[in-house]
Write a structure and sequence with these properties.
Layout (H helix, E strand, L loop, with lengths): L5 E3 L6 E3 L10 H11 L1 H5 L1 H10 L1 H19 L1
Antiparallel strand pairs: 1-2
Helix pairs in contact: 3-4
Length: 76
């Protein structure tokens, strides 16, 4: 079976030569992009999850509490 000379870095997804793995340094921007790509399903559901939370009793309380805190700060 054919074995590729390059493998993706587990941290940033960059293609890294197997023989020079110790020399690889992850680019921070690439790491963020790679992590966001891995979380794309969760990010896509964020709006739905937030809406569901805000409709729950706990979410309604948090909204009420935040409004109350804002009103108190304005009154001070």
């Amino acid at each position: 079976m054919f074995r590729s000379r390059f493998m993706p870095c587990r941290e940033c997804g960059a293609s890294v030569d197997r023989e020079n793995q110790s020399e690889h340094v992850c680019d921070p921007v690439r790491m963020v992009d790679f992590q966001l790509f891995a979380l794309r399903t969760d990010v896509g559901r964020l709006d739905e999850s937030l809406a569901a939370f805000l409709e729950s009793p706990t979410g309604r309380f948090e909204v009420w509490h935040a409004r109350r805190a804002v009103r108190r700060r304005r009154a001070s």
